[in-house]
Amino acid sequence: MLKSLLKKVSKGMCMMILESANKQQLFNLKKRWLRIHPADNVLVALTDLHKGEEISWEDFHCTLVTNVSAKHKFAMTDLAVGDKIIMYSFLIGRAVEPIRQGETITTRNLRHDTSEFAYQAAEFKWTPPDISKWRERTFLGYQRSDGQVGTGNYWLVIPMVFCETRNVNVIKQAFEKELGFAQPEIYRHQVADLVKLYQEGRQAEIENYQSKEMSHATGEKKIFDNIDGIKFLTHEGGCGGTREDSVGGLGRVVVAHRVLEQH
Fold first, then answer.
1. Which residues contact 81 (CB under 8 A, 6 or more apart)?
2. Which of 48, 86, 54 is nearest to 68 (CA)?
3. What does the alpha-carbon distance between residue 56 and residue 102 come to, in Å, rounded to a whole number?
4. Do the strands 154-157 and 229-232 form a parallel or antiparallel pair, or are they unpaired?
5. Residue 241, helix vs strand vs coil
6. Sequence-distant (≥ 6) Cβ neighbours of residue 148 within 8 angstroms
7. Fewer beta carbons under 10 A from the terminal one: N or C of the chain?
8. For the chain, where are the alpha helices, taking DSSP H only?
9. Which residues pair with 150 in a beta bridge?
10. pLDDT at 217 over 50
11. What 3-state class would DSSP assign to 141?
């Protein structure tokens, strides 16, 4: 009886493992590619895809005509020279040679392009509160040409692809330094003093070294008086590792910065 029971349990566990494996395989198949926004005309490979693979969902079907490496894009439709390539619902480039449906997008067949910059693409309607008792009050701010107001004028740099964080940090260092927004390098100057003393063999002076007084206000002179700062919004979460962080979280951060600028 015990042997029979063990046999049934073992068989049941094997079936559960097999069922779980089948579900996991189905899950992986569904996650092999991604359409980031319904308006996009490219898909993103989440794993290496191979020439001849069938891509299907709902009423869309295509066969890959090239290999597509993980994290690379491939065309959903045939694209002629000059056609727009849309990702995140935005223009990211144009075809510089004919691109077939199911063909990988590369630096060879794509030229970077973006839409024209524009303020306030949509109207925001709301019911303002009663502010009659503050009507005569003022604050230190400025008024925009469209009637909105703000208290600070900041440049926001937001990488559309989060694996560009390292490059953005390099840009951040260059922009902050050259445009006058970098913090004074107090400790760097102190280390430079100690290195100089060491190289000159002045050991006793190192032991008794006193750092020079340096004001925190002695940073670089700002180039643009009407720019209050530059903010670089980056994170270390990787490329699309967490959709909630990369989409919802980023959206809330941008909205928060926008609200703070206006109030």
1. 95, 96, 97, 98
2. 48
3. 11
4. parallel
5. coil
6. 262
7. N
8. 2-30, 165-178, 186-199, 203-207, 243, 250-262
9. 142
10. no
11. coil
> Which amino acid type is present at position 262?
Q
Residue 218 identity (one-letter amino acid): T
Spatial distance between the Cα atoms of 235 and 186, rounded to a whole number of angstroms: 27
Strand pairing category for 149-150 and 142-143: antiparallel
Question: What amino acid is encoded at 206 in this protein?
Answer: I
Q: Considering only CA atoms, which of 130, 121, 101 is closest in space to residue 42?
A: 101
- Which tens digits make up the pLDDT trace of 223-259? 888 888 888 887 766 555 445 555 556 566 666 655 5
Dihedral angle over CA of 86, 88, 92, 96, nearest 10: -30
Amino acid in position 132: S
How far is it, in rounded angstroms, from Cα 251 to Cα 94?
27
pLDDT in tens, 31-50: 789 999 999 999 999 999 99
Q: Are 180 and 217 in contact (CB under 8 A)?
A: no
Q: What is d(CA 234, CA 227) in angstroms, rounded to the nearest whole number?
A: 21
- The arrangement of strands across the sheet holding 73-75 comes to 33-34, 42-45, 73-75
The token pair at 55 is: 């891509």
For 125, 127, 140, 142, 149, the CA distances from 134, given in Å and listed in that order, are 22, 17, 15, 17, 16
Neighbours of 262 (CB within 10 A): 13
Q: Which amino acid is at 90?
A: F
- pTM for the predicted model, two decimal places: 0.45
